[in-house]
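pipeline/complex-builder :: batch 7 item 3
reading input block
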Amino acid sequence: MSILVIAVGVFGLITADNLIKKIMCLAVIENTIILGFIRAGFREGGAAPILISPEIITVDPIPHAIMLTAIVIGVCFNALAVACIVRLHQKTGTVQISEIHEL
Amino acid sequence: MNFNTLFSAVQLDTLEVLKILWITFPVIPLTALMTALAVKYLFKQDWAAGITRASHILQLLWALLITLAASSLEREYVFRLMDHEISIAFLFSREKLFFLWALMIPLFLSLFRLKTLKTFSMHMVFLFYLGGCSGLVTTGDVFNFFVFYELMIMGAYVLISIKDEYSASVKYMIFGAASSAMFLAGIAVLYASGAYFDFTYVENIQQLPQYTLTVALILFTAAFLIKGGFFPVSGWVAPCHSAANALVASFHASYTIFTGSLGLYYLVLLPADAMGAEQFFSLLRIISVLTLCASSVILFWEHSFIRSIAASTVFTMGMIGLLMSCRLYTEAGFYILLHAAYKSLLFYMYDEIEERGEEISLSIPHMVFLAVSILFAAGLFPSVTGALKEAVHAFAPLRYKLLLLITGMLVIGGFAKFRYRPAGFRGVSLSTLLSLGILTACSLLTLSQLNLQIPVAFDALTDLAAAVFVIAVSRKVFTRFKALHGIDRLTIYRNINQELLLAFSILMFSLLFILS
């Protein structure tokens, strides 16, 4: 399922003419990878990773901790990308790739 | 007195000193950033320029001390923040010194051009970018490599638009994010294979599931081939590097793009070597040869001088890839160092010359500096890069000799096609003179450290004769075939969608090549 969603994101990224749509496709790809990563740390029947006793099976907390950082980076990227696209729109009057010569 | 005796005199362990210096190195620009922000918003004072300068000087001092300490130590050390196997790790190795100094060269030169960062916010972005660059050199684990890469590249997105060229910034952003997504997917697959994130997982690589690891390495390969601007995903390099001013462009061309080769070395080639997966080396060799051929042809037909300078970085990237695919890592390291010096020289010099169409007006000293830089860029006798290239001849003498001679000639022709007009003895800026000094120092260092083959008289004469021939005919060929001007933008890099398609096709090609 993850691969399918990533494929949809990649298709949109390659074909979209609108820069905002491209950024949205990138967000789809990145968030699917993040979900997949968190899924990799899941243990069947595992409890929340709070160690009350060593016998209790818990899910692996490392992907959660790491992906929090990746989510923050993703949000920063989206904000920065949209800011740059707004500036580009102010300069060229469009966000369509086919209408911006340099792209 | 060597470094060991110096520190033993004050009862300090050299390794402990190195650990402290290495871990605190990326903290310097980030602390400077926080300090400047605090001063600005608490005391309403703008000390950005002074604090940035202080941060640069401190980092240069740190780099000098690290190099001195490393001279008396062994090759590789892992420093963990906590005594636990999943703790954040920093890795020091001799190879990292090349990347450290590839960063320090533009950093030193930028001390004399800081006034080109006109606003407080640009200083802050610059420090943020340097925090990412410094962390990338010191980190020893895969995930922090990703985090520092993102810090660096986010700063780079903003710095590229320093002259309001937002289209270049957006282009860089899209390619940066697409490659980062592949990098993150690679980290996820690596985690799924059961490997720890620090670079030392390579020691136990044979015990891990090989198929999953191979998929992770393929994703890393595709990500770093894009980040490193290898062909066919090199269309973004020239517009992005030429959009910024000399200070920013020198950082991007000397360091940022070469972090692609840093990633390839630590995350692909070393693990592949430990796995015995020779296909990764063959893949890199094929792509590097393609990069050398395509970039030299593109450079020859490029009609803008600044874009030609930027495009020659792709050619160097191909050369570095070729050296690394032949396991000539030390030679590749010295090549990166020399490239940082001559590329900074070219970008700083560009600020002092006048370009009108295909006519370049420059003073006599600039003309001499330009000739030296072009020789280094093309890797021809008598430049040291020419001697470094000789190392790959041992692998396939005739094929590589011909390939490097023809592509080197195209690079020479790419610069020789412009009309140069001497403009007396105008002054040369301090930063340009210092770049030349650094280039000389790096050349002497390379010659003293490596047992380089001096080209035999026949090879040297072939190089010179071919160069003279190319200089004589390049302008005529260029003007005769006007339809081929900007050939890359007419064919493979028509728009960003086509370039993105190429970016994902490189992933598919890597996947098919390795798994077949």
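note: The mean pLDDT of chain B is 87.
queue -> next item
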